[in-house]
Write a structure and sequence with these properties.
228 residues, mainly alpha, globular
């Protein structure tokens, strides 16, 4: 009886992780990315919509199979502390985490974000805004809110959960961004996911992710054009 109850709790988590990770792996697979040669904007849009559909599917697992509330993903109501902690994480990322990961990437001799950013900045503004929201909301729900909390349930060890979640997150970025950025995503993921386990505040993570991506894809390029 006990084994049956354990299985009823474990199976939804495994299926949810397979949806989050496996579905994203399909979206960034060589077959999916090969379509970029014909229409980069259309391929990017399909990829973003696909991520939202995966997010809806995983939330369906949470609400209707696991029968758990959104707070099981450490999602908190809209309150000012989440904005404060999100802002603190942004500062930590810009001042400490990103420079440290960039130093590690440079020491490794791997290429950086230049090629990927060059491609991303060819997309229309509305699609980049959509991508920022997708990255901030969907990636945090799938790869931190769901992945970390369920790995903690399945593995029972925060270090293993943080390490595996960060590794998979980085690996899923490799097909699009390359080895250098993937290494940076892994190292920064260890730091930010540790922060997430400490604060248990998914909203703060979403806020920070939206601000960081928004700066990289929208604000900094606009300032660069204006400055020229």
């Amino acid at each position: 009886m006990r084994a049956k109850l354990m299985g009823a709790k474990v199976l939804p988590g495994i299926v949810g992780l397979l949806l989050a990770w496996g579905g994203t792996a399909l979206l960034v697979s060589p077959l999916a990315l090969s379509a970029r040669n014909s229409s980069p904007a259309r391929t990017a849009l399909v990829g973003q919509v696909g991520l939202w559909l995966l997010c809806a599917a995983v939330l369906g697992v949470v609400l209707f199979w696991e029968k758990q509330p959104l707070r099981s993903l450490w999602f908190r109501p809209l309150q000012w502390p989440s904005f404060a902690w999100g802002g603190l994480l942004v500062l930590a990322y810009l001042i400490v985490i990103f420079p440290a990961t960039e130093w590690i990437r440079a020491r490794s001799g791997l290429s950086g974000f230049a090629a990927g950013m060059e491609s991303a900045l060819t997309l229309p503004n509305w699609l980049r805004i959509f991508a920022v929201l997708t990255g901030g909301v969907v990636e945090e729900v799938l790869f931190r809110g769901y992945a970390v909390t369920r790995l903690l349930q399945l593995m029972g060890h925060p270090v293993l959960a943080v390490g595996l979640a960060s590794f998979v997150f980085a690996a899923l970025h490799f097909p699009v961004w390359g080895a250098g950025p993937a290494l940076m995503f892994f190292v920064s993921g260890l730091a930010t996911t540790t922060f997430f386990v400490w604060r248990r505040d998914l909203l703060a993570m979403i806020i920070a992710h939206v601000v960081i991506d928004g700066w990289a894809l929208l604000i900094a390029p606009a300032i660069s054009i204006w400055w020229q």
